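Ticket 4471: requesting a sanity check on a complex prediction with S-adenosylmethionine. Repro inputs:
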Amino acid sequence: MQTQTIIKEKIDHILSDAEVENILEEGRRRTRDFALRALEDGKAAQGLTLEELAALAYSDDPEVLAGLRDAAHTIKKQIYGERMVFFAPLYISNFCSNNCLYCGFRHANKGLPRKALTPEEIAEEVRALLRQGHKRLLLVAGEDPRTSGIDYLEKAVAAVYGVRENGASIRRVNVNCAPLSVEDFRRLKATQIGTYQVFQETYHRPTYKRVHPSGMKAHYDWRVTAPDRAMEAGIDDIGVGVLFGLYDWRFEIVALLAHARYLETKYGVGPHTISVPRLEPAEGAPLSTDSPYRLTDDELKKVVSLLRVAVPYTGMILSTREAPELRDELFALGISQTSAGSRTTPGGYAAGDNEELAPTRLAQFTVQDHRSLAEMVRSFVKGEYIPSFCTACYRSGRTGDRFMALAKSGKIHDICQPNALASLKEYLLDYADEETRRAGEELIAASLKALPENLRRTTEKMLARLEAGERDVYL
Ligand code: SAM
Ligand code: SF4
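Returned structure tokens:
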């Protein structure tokens, strides 16, 4: 009963469906000039109000659309530079007692063989990922009493951090799992996780109810208040998101921004990251192909641009659900973190291409970008991006509001750029082939030249320490 009262207090501060509809209606009526003015503020990294976001979402005026792309691109360059942080998802279990109509792991998908990795199997996966050069993982699990409970999660995180492979280890574990109680979030924080990630999937209550027919996930309020409980437990890097394609994307982004603003007001810090997964085909999940709200590529590009302008200082994450060409466009519009070489099958990394060991049909949904980490790093260093394996902020205590204050003052650049270059150098020394190494060294040299004198000297010293054999060098 007490829990229900607390939840009620919180959801009263998150917009109701009717309030979101009103804002959308207002946005629909706004003029082209209003939208262009909003973009001017947006371009100066001032963020957007809910009304401005709604107006821009409805506008199909070519000048507004071009201005939006330009603003998103400018902010991306200004705040995140050429850096792109890499991570890998690690699926530890596909057991699930929920029935989300869009997901291959749903309980009713009886044809799916279930697997929950043991700590030893998790360690095997981690070894395979470390051999590729990964340093940052996202643990992902279905919701099932056997595997989504805190006892299993504690063992899983410990198993990841416990692995050493040729001297390397995972330096940051983020977690995407079912919402926990405050007490269990405290235990999760104690395992030294970085970000806790939870997607509301859809903020539209009737749709939420329809697509989550049973199991714990059927409770909208328990899920939408998960970030509150995590914050109360001291986890101040929270990742939120929407599964785009379940309902009207305009409704979703306005509600998502309202949720972000609520967290910012209440806890002094908004979400650390926003993810933009789009509904992909999944075996045994008919809604994954049937939804009338599936987004076109252009709509997804607009969503990414709008979010980039609306919350300039919140990192944006793109997974390998999307095809390579589209991903490359979305990177330029605002994405700051991405996965590479992902497997959504528990045991998929250690199994490699062995279909018998980890059949593709055990996967949660279809992955469209099959480029390996090595291929992506090569294409990044030859192109315009600096691949970053940096995990420094969280380990130096720059989380939550401390991170945001640095980001907003622009000082974070002075930390991120040297750290990104050092982490790239480490990758080049330990994992890259000759071609990537050469292109990567050229990129580092060019990036050094562009740094102010004092930062250049600091970075050169870091690079020299790496050359001399030291590892994990960061500010
Ligand atoms: N079971 C936990 C939960 O639902 O929060 C965490 C893990 S779940 C495997 C991670 C995310 O996968 C979900 O939040 C959902 O957004 C996404 N997902 C599920 N089915 C999908 C599909 N068919 N296409 C794309 N993403 C999907
Ligand atoms: Fe289970 Fe999560 Fe998939 Fe829903 S989205 S069926 S809770 S794994």
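Notes from triage: The first strand starts at residue 83 and ends at 93. Leaving this open until the requester confirms.
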